[in-house]
Structure formats: structure tokens, C-alpha cells
Amino acid sequence: MIVALADDPAAFQAALREWLGDLLARDWREAMEAEGADEDAYVAFQRWWFARCREQGLILPELPVDLGGANLSIRLQMMVVEELARADAPPLKGGMYTVAHTHVPATLLHAASEEQRAAYLPGLIEGDVWCQGFSEPGAGSDLAALRTRALRDGDHYVINGQKLWSSFAAQAKYCLLLARTDPDAPKHRGISFMILDMASEGVEVRPIRQATGHHEFCELFLTDVRVPVANLIGGENAGWATAQATLAAERGVLAFERAERARYELERFLAQARESHAPWLGREADRAEFAALVARLQSIRRMVRRLLADDGNGAAASRLPAFIKLLSTSFGQSYADFRIRVAGLAGQIDRPSLPLSGSVPIHDYLNSFGDTISAGSNEIMRNLIAERVLGLPR
Length: 394
Fold this sequence. Notes:
Blueprint: H1 9-23, H2 28-34, H3 39-55, H4 74-86, H5 98-111, H6 114-126, E1 130-133, E2 149-153, E3 156-163, E4 174-180, E5 191-197, E6 203-207, E7 218-228, E8 232-233, H7 239-248, H8 253-276, H9 284-310, H10 315-343, H11 361-371, H12 378-389
Parallel strand pairs: 1-4
Antiparallel strand pairs: 2-3, 3-7, 4-5, 5-8, 6-7
Helix pairs in contact: 1-4, 4-8, 5-6, 5-7, 8-9, 9-10, 10-11, 10-12
């Protein structure tokens, strides 16, 4: 396995690059879409990619060895991400495995019991898909306004409520669920965090068709769903603090991966424009706008590196995440808008594609608006920066 070379970073990187070159054709997206751009094809492809990465020990290699990982250093984790981005390979922590590979480990390692870690972490390496039951129709940006109720009944909680924007819930085995266990407490203090088995009676999943034609987002309807008290993470009414660890998971290697992929995407876009003699290259205003996008991305990449170097122990860990989320999603929206405008009508052509594949510009443009809402809306990020960094009053 590639991770067996972890003691020799140069050999590790060379083996990883060679493996990616042998495994994936450059046109893997187009080849997959030619076979049928539907949800089933996308799920099947992700499972194939997962299996190949698992064979090389690349599924959650950062976990401790006794939990199935390789205790890979942050330096080598960043190297893996850089090589995946360079090769334009599928994300290691993306698609239907985003929650399982990013949010679940961060949550369980932070707040779960030893028994819970032993019960759920090995399954992540085996391919368990997880979803997230946080947002609700009336509690998106203001997550603490959630109304899903959990009433204690002996050794179980009885759950009733609705969740929204739960990506890949239709494929998920488990769900990270927030529910209100004390309706009389202040809204941040009456919430509990628990694990929901998606096969439980009373769980209904309804996929939501998006403007792109994809339907990885889902609604969850929970009717008298019984969840064992043993599935509680972090203690009753302590769910808000646990949820912060879950949301913080997007601020580390996942943010680094997104920034590195954006870097190579800009390089490919420019190379293709030069090769095809794209008209926008002859317009000074468009060249200046593209140069500004490159500068914005470089600043984001530097911020992410500073955050990872800080390792969660200094001022960067408390200040940079909100900046990174705000700036990276705003950049993504600006870049998608730029691509659509300089391409003219050709950039607005819609056609079937695999979800989140990046192969249809108009889909990236449409998705970019959702990115500024998910994982804490940009308006919320601005409030955090104003209050916690600038010291402005609420």
C-alpha cells in the first residue's frame, strides 16, 4: 500500500503520483457521463473510487492505527490532496463520502465515547455512507432555531421533525442528527447530538430535484423514530458544542483540498483558453478580472496553509475559518460567473452531467450560490468576523 511508504515522503509522493497516472484517464468525467449521467452511475463510480483508495490505505489514513488508519501526518495528508488535485482525480473526501470522511471522524474523536468510536469509525473505512441532519426549513442559517424534538422514553429518544438539505441521505446508513431535548432551555442549550440509524422505522427520505437536474440533496421526515440513548454524543443538551466540532471539520484538510483544486482548475482554464485562442484573452478588462481571481485564490491558499500550520492551537484557528469560508465561496461564485460570461451563450448550454463533476459550467454557476449558504451562510460568517475579530457589538 502507498501508506506503507509514509516514512519516506519522496517515495510516498512518487508512488502516489504513479498510481494516479495508471489508474485514471484524464477524461474520466467525460467517460463516466458517456455511460449515463444519472445518480446511479455516479454512486457506482464513487464506490469504485472508494474501493481503489481503500486498497492503497488512503481512506482516513489520518486515523490512529488502532482505529484502522495509518496515523498519517498533516504534511503527508496535504501531499495526498495536492497530488489528487494535480491529477484532477476525484476528491478523497468528497461526494457522498464527505460527511463520512470529514465530519464524522472530527465529531467522534472530539466528543464520542471509546465504545462509540470502536462501533462506528471502522465502518467508515469499510464504506459506510453518512449524512447530516442539521438544517431545517426554519433553521438553516440560524441553526439553533431547530424544532425537531427528541423526547426521552426509557432507553430511547422518540424523534419527530423534519430536516432539509441533507446531502446523499438516500444512500446513507447513518445520520449525524441534532434534536431539541429541552424546549424550555435557551435555544443553544437545549439541543442534543445523536447518531440516527437511517434504517429505523419512521425515517422517510425525499430527494429534492435541483435546477441542475441532480437530486443529491434530500429532505428527512422523522415520525416517532426511536433512537437509543446510547447513541447520544457528548451528553444530553450539550449538542451545540459538539456540532461546532462537526462544522469545524470543513476548515482543515477539506478546505485545503478545495483551494488546491481551484488552483489547478484556473491553470487548466487558462491553458485551454490559450490553446483555443479564446476571445476574452484579447480584452484587457477580462484579463484584468482573471488576474484578480488568481490573486484572490492565492490569498485563500495562504490562509488555509496558515490555519493548518497553526494546528488548531493559536489565533489562526479562531479567526481564519470564517474568513476562509467567506472568501473561498465568494471566489467560487465570482469564478463561475466569469466563466459563464466570457463563454457567451455556449457557456449556458445545459446537458446531463454527474453531480458535482465540474464538467458543465452552468451547473457550477448554479451550485456556487448554494455554496455561499451551506456550512454557515456568508452572512453568518460576516457576523462572526464583525463580532469576534473586529469586536463590534451584536
